């Protein structure tokens, strides 16, 4: 092959890929980032509503234990602000009677207890890995004594975290994911604490700006990656780039969109086949003001009835507009997608009225986004590994394939599936590549 | 777009694609078949051993209830012959004591009973679909009282059928698959009754010969399929073909290798993500003669110990050589793949010696094949739908996407995963396309 043009080609301009490129660039490596879309940010995407309010269609929250994303925001000069929380939650099945919560609380404690036993670098080595991976979360739930409210609560929480129903999820995957965040408490209470001024995509936009347009190439999907003993060659519709190493930082379910030469090893191929994304729709209503605050409500709700299972106050920090965000997940998302545009809007607004009164009835704007039809995402929030997958194919998750290294939030051992996990995966892949290039400096 | 060059482009030159092309061609439609490899046949592939014996690396058996494949073989002038069965099975855990078999038999009867309740055209409509789809086969097995031998027997049988472990399988998928074949008895006892003279690939080779090289293009992977209101445009590395309709007849896990414009709908994308292939290695030893027959043995075995779980006499019909075939599946296949070439051969030969005596120690040839590293297959025998998948995404399985229709053995309601299923799926897709072309004849 030809002489490498750059040290490293990164495929994917989401948080993982840009973080990898940023780290490599900072250590003096020459980098190229190939992004399929005409924008960076991957599963973070901030659109500006007609009223001028930035609306995050994808990931949006960061929590205090998420060190990398917090540090990166500070480095890039992006301010953060607390998610509005003053006042009471409008309705939450978490806050039904103590008696009813007891069963759910016990189940959540047990999930946390199991999670604490999972070696997060190698979940397949947990003592009970095989038993946990061989059953669905639903089988585990059915094996417990749970009253109806607790059962509903757990379903709402779990579909909220995984955008899949308990019937679809491996118990080992669930507790590995919990472990990577620390605990269920971290996932449910801490992960939503803060927001990023200007929206979450700003992280990627700023990183891309720093790298510059010569480095970050938009609308350049990689179609093929070939490698031999000396280099890697990445093909797009318009060019072929040779490099010493490649980092693939696309959603793991999209890996097959790239043709590999030599073909990927069986373990990686079959690992990829066992990942699937969930279904989720994020809906927003923009109002002239955050009227619910007048009633002492914080805009939050958590319920099993209706399409929208969770709401938050998503207003801009200056309070110039009132924004409610709602999440529709898993089976409900699949049903919701089947409705007409009008019916979807009407269902959401009606629910907001039920929760927050008549002033919710006439939003200035209704915005929704569903990721599974997005060609370069194919589902949200993150991908889950099917029953039996972690114990059989987990060891292939971060294992590099010759000169090709793997990043993406799903490969992170900390806050897997979150922006934090994406950044950490990019750092880890950059470190791997750095070591490889250093070690081989004589030859390469 | 340009005027269609042909009525129908078929992507994939396996049994499904060729059958579709044959049916369409017979009804006067112009057809093009694009096959990625330099051969037709897909998961049927017959190589000639050094001794001249044809060896099937992929699918090889047909059973008396498999009407389409039996009829096609007759039409194409391919003779069939019975799998050698005279004499005794060398060892089978099916034939351990009655007491030990009772638990296994009861479990198999129960699976058959459940299978009979599955509407095979719409498994998601079974009364207990949600409960069955929400658990793994392993959870179901653990819920039964089973002695150790029965448990081992069921694992060997199920990994033999699905090339996945019970921990990986949806119970609803298992019984849907059973239902599509009729019963477990059909799968275990009937499906292996006959073989095809010259090997199973002969079916595809003859169909391709009849269609001719102008129709069947080898080494032509489709990279993109675009469609609009008037036609479909299929791109390969060397050409762009316009047609009225397309049939995609590639293994369902390979769908993402093709770029679709417009992108595929969410339901199909997420359906595909939920399919995964199993792991299987097929091993052959070729001997100067079928020496085991001298001892009154039929060459068969079924056991849970060692890598090889099942063996059969795979000698050619004229008895000119003796061939033993063995199957290594699921977890054992994954372990086996990790051994060195020598260790793999030694392990197989040692097992054959244990089963059939010292004369098995020195085969003229040892041949093995593992499909998961095959770029255009990615695992065998067929793909299984993960827990929760049938009930959520099953309706998308055969639903055409505009001018693109879907074939492949996984889409068949009869003998799903078998050569019979592949042929039926091709017929069904051809029928769909024929109706669409007739119905639209005024316009198209």
UniProtKB/TrEMBL annotation, chains A, B:
Domain called Amine oxidase: residue spans: 15-433
A Pfam family that the UniProt record links to this protein: Amino_oxidase
Top-rank taxon: Bacteria
Cofactors named for this entry: FAD
The keyword Oxidoreductase belongs to this UniProt entry's keyword annotation: yes
InterPro entries: Amino_oxidase, FAD/NAD-bd_sf, Flavin_amine_oxidase, Flavin_MAO
Keywords, ordered alphabetically: Oxidoreductase
Record carries keyword Hydrolase: no
Family: Belongs to the flavin monoamine oxidase family.
Alphabetical list of PANTHER family matching this protein: AMINE OXIDASE, AMINE OXIDASE [FLAVIN-CONTAINING] B
UniProt-recorded name of the protein: Flavin monoamine oxidase family protein
């Amino acid at each position: 092959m030809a002489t490498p043009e750059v040290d490293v080609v990164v495929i994917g301009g989401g948080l993982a890929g840009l973080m990898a490129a940023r780290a490599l660039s900072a250590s003096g490596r020459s980098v190229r980032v190939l992004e399929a879309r005409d924008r960076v940010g991957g599963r973070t995407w901030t659109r500006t509503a007609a009223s001028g309010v930035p609306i995050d269609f994808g990931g949006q929250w960061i929590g205090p234990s998420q060190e990398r994303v917090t540090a990166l925001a500070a480095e890039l000069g992006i301010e953060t602000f607390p998610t509005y929380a003053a006042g009471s939650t409008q309705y939450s099945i978490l806050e039904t009677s103590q008696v009813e919560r007891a069963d759910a609380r016990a189940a959540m404690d047990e999930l946390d207890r199991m999670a604490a036993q999972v070696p997060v670098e190698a979940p397949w080595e947990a003592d009970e890995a095989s038993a946990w991976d061989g059953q669905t979360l639903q089988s585990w739930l059915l094996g417990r004594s749970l009253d109806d409210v607790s059962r509903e609560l757990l379903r709402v929480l779990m579909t909220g975290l995984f955008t899949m129903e308990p019937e679809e999820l491996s118990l080992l995957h669930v507790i590995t994911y919990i472990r990577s965040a620390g605990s269920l408490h971290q996932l449910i209470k801490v992960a939503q604490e803060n927001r990023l001024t200007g929206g979450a995509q700003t992280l990627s936009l700023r990183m891309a700006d720093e790298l510059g347009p010569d480095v970050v190439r938009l609308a350049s999907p990689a179609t093929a990656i070939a490698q031999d003993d000396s280099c890697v060659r990445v093909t797009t519709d318009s060019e072929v780039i040779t490099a010493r190493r490649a980092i693939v930082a696309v959603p793991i379910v999209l890996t097959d969109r790239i043709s590999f030469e030599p073909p990927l090893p069986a373990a990686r191929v079959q690992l990829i086949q066992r990942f699937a994304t969930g279904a989720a729709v994020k809906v927003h209503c923009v109002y002239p003001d955050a009227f619910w605050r007048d009633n002492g409500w914080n805009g939050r709700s958590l319920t099993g009835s209706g399409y929208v299972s969770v709401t938050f106050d998503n207003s801009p920090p200056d309070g110039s507009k009132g924004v409610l965000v709602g999440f529709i997940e898993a089976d409900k998302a699949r049903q919701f997608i089947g409705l007409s545009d009008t019916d979807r809007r009407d269902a959401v607004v009606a629910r907001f009225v039920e929760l927050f009164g008549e002033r919710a009835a006439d939003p200035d704007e209704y915005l929704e986004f569903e990721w599974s039809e997005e060609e370069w995402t194919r589902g949200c929030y993150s991908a889950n590994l099917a029953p039996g997958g972690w114990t059989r194919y987990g060891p292939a998750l971060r294992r590099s394939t010759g000169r090709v290294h793997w990043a993406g939030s799903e490969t992170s051992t900390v806050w897997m599936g979150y922006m934090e996990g994406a950044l950490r995966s990019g750092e880890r892949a950059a470190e791997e590549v750095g070591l490889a290039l250093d070690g081989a400096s004589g030859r390469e």
